[in-house]
Design brief:
Number of strands: 13
Shape: globular
Radius of gyration: 19 Å
Strand order of the largest sheet: 2-1-3-4-5-13
Number of domains: 2
Order of helices and strands: EHEEHEHEEHHEEEHEHEEHEHH
Helix content: 25-40%
CATH architecture of the largest domain: 3-Layer(aba) Sandwich
CATH topology of the largest domain: Rossmann fold
Distance between the termini: 7 Å
Strand content: 15-25%
Length: about 270
């Protein structure tokens, strides 16, 4: 039987405990609160609390691991804690930070989320969506600002006909992403012909609106092979492609109750983690 080694922080009130506790209730697990790697499948929530270095070790030594973090849709809402405890989803990604293969499970819950028709606004800009400093450093060795400087130069050369804007990941009031104060993402997408994303979840939201995602490395991007390589022609995704991406991402995220009910089992089997 597979054992999952849950790498926890010392905090008993961390929201990370919701998905990790669900795994503990469903599977054979061991709690790990120091810097060592266990003998089973290593499970990390986020890249903080020393997880960054431990994930790098798993990759270096070809160890099996699973990344748990904020989901692509139906995320934890800081100002709706009661709803979030039971209804918020969490992403479960075997051996990577984002899906590395296309998975369509028998119960993909496609009815929960559908693509959104294209925003009916003129498209005159390319919007760069940097990931966090930690995520950017993990993939490229650069800070988010360093990545933006380099990518902006490449994008400007590849698509000189478009204006370029940058939207850094919103932060404030002790949080980041949609809960942080700032300009709404949709407002920033209104004039975007495409977005440029390393591995930003904001790029997934843009894709739901039919906005193409440009990436220097589609293999690490949440939309995967549907991302466009820099310098390739910008192509609007088809409805079939959009549905495929949404279905795949939904197949990689679950509520704690779904984990306890065994709905994660199929995904783990697809990646040979059970």
């Amino acid at each position: 039987m597979t054992t999952f080694d849950l790498h926890r922080s010392q905090s008993s009130i961390s929201k990370a405990n919701y998905p990790l506790d669900a795994l503990k209730d469903r599977y054979d697990t061991t709690d790990i609160i120091d810097g060592r790697l266990g003998d089973g499948v290593q499970v990390f929530w986020g890249l903080g609390h020393g997880n960054y270095d431990k994930v790098k070790k798993c990759i270096e030594y070809n160890r099996r691991w699973m990344f748990v973090d904020m989901p692509y849709f139906f995320r934890w809402q800081r100002y709706s804690p009661d709803w979030s405890k039971t209804m918020a989803h969490w992403r479960f990604i075997p051996n990577s930070l984002h899906p590395t293969r296309l998975v369509k499970l028998a119960d993909t819950r496609d009815h929960q989320l559908k693509r959104i028709p294209n925003l009916p606004i003129s498209k005159s800009e390319l919007l760069i969506l940097p990931s966090s400093d930690t995520m950017t450093r993990f993939h490229t060795g650069e800070t988010a600002e360093e990545w933006v400087i380099r990518i902006r130069r490449l994008v400007a050369m590849a698509y000189p006909e478009y204006r370029i804007r940058v939207r850094f990941k919103p932060r404030g009031n002790g949080t980041s992403g949609p809960d942080a104060p700032g300009i709404d993402l949709i407002s920033d997408l209104l004039h975007s012909k495409a977005v440029v994303s390393l591995a930003s979840i904001a790029g997934v939201e843009a894709y739901r609106f039919g906005i193409p995602v440009i990436s220097e490395n589609p293999k690490i991007n949440p939309v995967g092979d549907m991302a466009i390589n820099i310098s390739d022609k910008i192509r609007t995704p088809t409805s079939t492609q959009m549905d495929q991406v949404i279905s795949n991402l939904l197949s990689h995220q679950y509520t704690p109750s779904e984990v306890r009910d065994g709905k994660l089992d199929q995904l783990l089997a697809c990646y040979s983690l059970t």
